[in-house]
Design brief:
This protein has about 475 residues and is α+β, with helices and mostly antiparallel strands. It has 3 domains: about 1-65, no CATH class; about 95-365, no CATH class; about 380-475, Immunoglobulin-like, CATH 2.60.40. It is built from 14 helices and 20 strands. It has a 6-stranded mixed sheet, sandwiched between helices. A 5-stranded mixed sheet has the order 13-20-19-16-17, with no helix packed on it. It has a 3-stranded antiparallel sheet with strand order 14-15-18, with no helix packed on it. About 35% of the residues are buried.
Length: about 475
Amino acid sequence: MKKGFKMLYCFSIFIICIIPVCLMPFFKNNAQIEKRKLAEFPAYIESGKLNIDFSTQFESWLNDRLPFRAYILSASNLIKGEFFHAPTSNVIVGKEGWLYFTEEGDDFMDTTAMTDDEIRSAAITLRIIQNVVNDKGGAFTFVPIPNKASVYGEYMPTEYIEAPDNNLKRLMRAADEYDVNYVDMLSVLKAKKTDADPVYLRRDSHWNNRGALIGYNAIMDSLGKEHKTYSDANYTVGKTWEGDLDKLLYPSGCGKDDQYKYDIKISNYSFTEPAPMGSTENMLSIFMSDLEQNDMKIISHNDDINDGSSLYMVRDSFGRAVLPYFIDNYENAEFRRTDVPDVANLADDTDVCYEIVERNLKRIISKTPYMYAPIADGLDPSAFKDGGSITVNIKEEGFGTKICGIIPDGIVSEDGRVYVLVKNGKNEGIYEAFPIYEKSVFGEQENKRGFSMMLEKSEDSANYEISVIYGENIFNP
């Protein structure tokens, strides 16, 4: 009797384990439900050797494809998030149904603060870009979009205590110090939010269409450009938007969030990039959705405007909701989804909008922008004292010659600017470099200060003579 019971028990466990595997072909692909790439089936042999990680990789492959996975995850997140308010699936479940990215918690409490050097370097980087844009006849504005938690902190869980200062506020102060033109979007959105008319989506990490329209007008005011305000546009509000955070929490299916729909007719326009994918209206609808398809580079032309106006916008996912307004107000507009502005190829008289969300501010100094270093006038190298040796790297990269290096530890500079003296025929002169430490060249090192810049290609780049001015010192490799 006991032996029969044990056999029955083992058989039952086997059946329970095998049923999900047998049902795999009959259930919807989890990739379609969870909107992500699933783990691939592992190879038995890798680089000519037996794959010793096969079992672990196979487990990941199997787990990603088990039936009911999305429903189990949804149920688990419901219990952990909605009932216990524990961060789960990269989502913070706040009060009254408000959701936030977990990264927003770090900014909210200021636990991942940028250093003073990093804040200053970001402000100087923006100022250098602004100077070049202005020299080419265009207007420049920096647009840091606040995290939702910065605007709606009152709905964060009680265990999250808002810090009095954070990266966004520090960078705006530094931008004031270095005379960078920017939009204080935090103040703009806080001033416009009401209980009846929010400016962010409750179940999504982005602003809603009302917040985007408010943001667009603030950006255009900052650029000093006359524009349509759409202040009299009729709108409706309906549950039409699937929040990105909601979908992370509930991959098996979620509800709809309230979204604003404005009755605005855009001028006749067309897209020159990407290649046509149906009607222009359909393409714009896709670009504005969360599908994120073929939207890395969008170029539009407005057939009803003939004033030569041009816009170049560096953007992230927040920029998608403002696309129609800029398309409707500039003859030509280019939208780049990137962290690295391309100023080298910027046409004269082009306005530049550099938009980035608060949680990604550090990316401003993650890589050197695509532009040639500006010439610095009025510096006398003999006025600086010998600072010793410095690490410098010179190499051909893309459209030019990149010169980057590491600032020695312990060296103080009052203004944080870096100047590079170059002797090499075509590029001889003194240039201002970005105060950016190139991790791609020198590796991951904490709190390292550096500089980086690009010059036009030279046939004799191997024989550059370099000196670097930082603070009161002049350094040589």
